[in-house]
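Weekly modeling sync, notes
Attendees: S.R. (lead), two postdocs, one rotation student

Agenda item 3: backlog of single-chain predictions. S.R. asked that every request posted to the team notebook include the full sequence so nobody has to chase files. The rotation student volunteered to paste the first one in as an example of the format we agreed on. Action items at the bottom.

Example entry:
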Amino acid sequence: MRFYVGAASNLKFSLDFSIAESTFKETGPITLSFLINGHPLDKAAFARAGDHHYEKPVPGALLRAGGENIVEIEPDRVWTSKQDGARLSILLIRAGFVE
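Predicted structure, as returned to the notebook:
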């Protein structure tokens, strides 16, 4: 995901997402790794299906003030369809930087 931030201090990365019950039955708990501009921010484990909220302060040194910032979310497990090979993980609801 790409985000523009004006100032790079006192910001938190905020994410609302869901894990589908149908995929969770096969994958079980998942851990998400969060990277900001290619640098690790955090790893967080989620042990149930349903809606989740994640929020973490971001060190200003990881952000490009007045520019584009790339956020990557990497799951440790994905569900793969036996029918068509589709790969699913989380359903993104909302993401961004907040004060």
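Discussion: group reviewed the output briefly. The first helix runs from residue 21 to 27.
Action items: rotation student to repeat for the remaining queue; S.R. to check formatting next week.
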